[in-house]
Amino acid sequence: MNENLRSGIRAICSLSGIFDLAPIKNSYLNEVLRLNEKDVEEYSASNQDLSVVKCPVLLSVGSHETSFFIEQSRSMYAKNKPLAHIEYYEYERLNHYEIAHKLGQTDSPLVNFILEVIDKKEVVQNKQN
Q1: Is residue 112 part of a domain?
Q2: How do residues 54-83 score in pLDDT, each as one tens digit?
Q3: In this structure, is residue 25 part of a structural domain?
Q4: Residues forming beta bridges with residue 12, ordered by sequence position
Q5: Which of 60, 64, 68, 108 has the smallest count of CB within 10 Å of its CB?
Q6: Any residues with CB less than 8 A from the CB of 129 and at least 6 apart, and which?
């Protein structure tokens, strides 16, 4: 990743993400995406070293997702827990469409995560001024 871009990232928040693109390459979706083996290797987040990410990461998934989304998020979390500041949250009875609605609710772990990152940024900026 471009170092200038990486330094500007304050947090990463995933809503039922797809981190390993190999199953997508082998599905009907690849008729449009046209992923090849090199693309899967290069663009799958599951193949990347998250220890270089110096910001908090939240992987959120809904319990009403297909097992594909849930397993992708759990696997990404388990693989990177020792390497990065990473959190995992599974929303009961929601899918990725419904999780997006949590962005408007102050009692949401998703919103709390984002607000904590913003608060930390403001504290750092105030100390610099």
Answers
A1: yes
A2: 889 999 999 999 999 999 999 999 999 998
A3: no
A4: 57
A5: 68
A6: none
